[in-house]
TrEMBL record:
Gene Ontology molecular function terms on file: cytokinin dehydrogenase activity; FAD binding
The protein's name: cytokinin dehydrogenase
Pfam families: Cytokin-bind, FAD_binding_4
Coiled coil: none
Domain of life: Eukaryota
Organism of origin: Lithocarpus litseifolius
């Protein structure tokens, strides 16, 4: 059972003046939902898919799943539950694509709203000086890409994987290699339509209902359900040059990354990842990349080593190949990577953005997609990234990693500190993502128990070394931990909860609040 606690005893979660009606048993609650006149429908049985997520570690079965066909379906359901007040323990979780890793989109014996049913609300692209697209909160980013490309446009900021919903990523941040330049996805939204925890439908933006707008962005689903979003667009390129180079020295690697994210006319995407003791690494790359110097690349061995890969992309259209090549040469000439490890590729913009889906299909074919994913994501301040790396890659993860480890810096100036997301308080900080997979029945180093233990060592080190890190896609169990996570922003978080979801109905799987009963 989700082990949430009412985290703010002095706050209106507890003090809301609701007369205590007699408690309803679960059969009464279920039948009361059935009386709602909806455009969509509830399912009360065979809801096991709603008790699953990408993490494959938490399984909380809901009492009902709502498949909404309209925004009133969502608002009427929430208002109904809100009006039952403390007579019911029902909570509500919006479920996007269910790609959380720790049950965040689940609701134990509550109602899960299958947001993808709302996808059918038409996408509307507005061209002009400030182009944007209006989409449903349950829309997948891959569909938005295809729709906006019809107009030569595309969102500016992405995640590495596009089979996620707008509501799901905007409740966190939505970060990829474009974030250094455009900020995360939550910095690229003009307007939202939100159903609050009282069932009210509110349109909000930077100018209108501002507090709710910023609260919901990065708000872990705590203040409302995003039913519609207006996403900023820019011109879309047709093609990208996709480049990888290796470093053996961590500080040279990060120095180059930091220089690139602070340069004018830099690459359009800047990421990086760590490679620990991989055999035949460059050979594996050859299926999709070509080495600049094949003979030298043949000589290079990655066995037994920890290496740092810089991954960058430059957009281009077929008629400006010459200019883009010059610009890439110029950018690369300022970097200090190992020369024999320069690998290049040229693919369509869609192929690049949808790259993780290719790996997904391969892993699915091998039965390796639906396995436990004990992921850990951090924001690490630039001033402590070398301390972080020294301990984690020098002492904890020395022989192997059980999945990709991403590491790249972003500029704080592109993030808006009015949103609910918390980041380290430095001009530059790193996203570090341990995207680990665990072999279901293994008791070895690739088993869940071993990886969870490793995660604990990483978390313990970050805490004792006082690195000033923040978890991204955070996961905590106690009041103290959530308060520490939000730090000075906790007060505002609590105020927003009491204003927009005073009964703590929404997103119980985040385990920040427990419904007041
Ligand atoms: P869900 O898991 O369904 O929901 C997540 C949370 O948001 C839940 O608390 C849920 O209740 C709430 N929620 C869902 N929909 C709504 C809504 N409409 N309104 C309000 N609340 C809502 N993240 C990055 O930033 N960058 C990446 O590159 C990246 N890559 C990823 C790759 C993979 C393979 C996976 C599995 C995840 C990745 N993520 C990445 C993390 C991802 O952004 C989050 O897990 C996100 O929440 C998943 O979206 P979803 O639609 O599956 O949301």
């Amino acid at each position: 059972v989700p082990n949430g606690t009412n985290l703010c005893p002095n706050h209106s979660l507890a003090t809301l003046k609701v007369q205590r009606p007699p408690r309803l048993n679960s059969t009464n609650i279920v039948s009361s939902l059935e009386t709602l006149g909806l455009d969509g429908y509830f399912s009360f049985e065979n809801n096991h898919h709603a008790a699953k997520d990408f993490g494959n570690m938490y399984h909380f079965l809901p009492s009902a799943v709502l498949h909404p066909k309209s925004v009133p379906d969502i608002s009427n359901t929430i208002r109904h539950i809100y009006e039952m007040g403390s007579a019911s323990e029902l909570t509500v979780a919006a479920r996007g694509h269910g790609h959380s890793t720790q049950g965040q989109a689940q609701a134990h014996q509550g109602v899960v709203i299958n947001m993808e049913s709302l996808q059918r609300l038409e996408m509307q692209v507005h061209i002009g000086k400030t182009p944007y697209v209006d989409v449903s909160g349950g829309e997948l980013w891959i569909n938005i890409l295809h729709e906006t490309l019809k107009h030569g446009l595309a969102p500016k900021s992405w995640t590495d994987y596009l089979h996620l919903t707008v509501g799901g990523t905007l409740s966190n941040a939505g970060i990829s290699g474009q974030a250094f330049q455009h900020g995360p996805q939550i910095s690229n939204v003009y307007q939202l339509e939100v159903v609050t925890g009282k069932g009210e439908v509110v349109t909000c933006s930077e100018k209108k209902n501002t507090d709710l707008f910023y609260g919901v962005l990065g708000g872990l689903g705590q203040f409302g359900i995003i039913t519609r979003a207006r996403i900023s667009l820019g011109p879309a390129p047709k093609m990208v040059k996709w480049i990888r180079v290796l470093y053996s020295d961590f500080s040279t690697f990060t120095k180059d990354q930091e220089q690139l994210i602070s340069s004018e006319n830099s690459f359009d995407y800047i990421e990086g990842f760590i490679i620990i003791n991989r055999t035949g690494l460059l050979n594996n790359w050859r299926s999709s990349f070509r080495p600049k110097d094949p003979a030298q690349a043949n000589q290079f061995s990655s066995d037994g080593r920890t290496l740092y890969c810089l991954e960058v992309v430059k957009h281009f259209n077929p008629d400006d190949t010459k200019t883009v090549n010059q610009s890439i040469e110029n950018l690369l000439s300022k970097l200090s990577y190992i020369p024999s490890t320069l690998f290049l590729s040229e693919v369509s913009y869609v192929e690049f953005l949808d790259r993780v889906h290719v790996s997904e299909k391969k892993l699915q074919a091998k039965g390796l997609w639906e396995i436990p994913h004990p992921w850990l994501n951090f924001f690490v301040p630039k001033s402590r990234i070398s301390d972080f790396a020294e301990e984690i890659f020098g002492n904890i993860l020395t022989d192997t990693s059980n999945g990709p480890i991403l590491i790249y810096p972003v500029n704080q100036s592109k993030w808006n500190n009015k949103t609910s997301l918390v980041t380290p308080d430095e001009d530059v900080f790193y996203l570090v993502a341990f995207l680990t997979s665990a072999m279901p029945s293994s008791t070895g180093t690739d088993g869940l128990a071993h990886i969870l233990n490793q995660n604990k060592r990483i978390l313990d080190f970050c805490a004792t070394a006082e690195l000033g890190i923040k978890q991204y896609l955070p996961h905590y169990n106690t009041q103290e931990e959530w308060q520490a996570h939000f730090g000075p922003h906790w007060k505002v978080f609590v105020q927003r909860k009491s204003a927009y979801d005073p009964l703590a109905i929404l997103a119980p799987g985040q385990r920040i609040y427990r419904k007041a009963t």
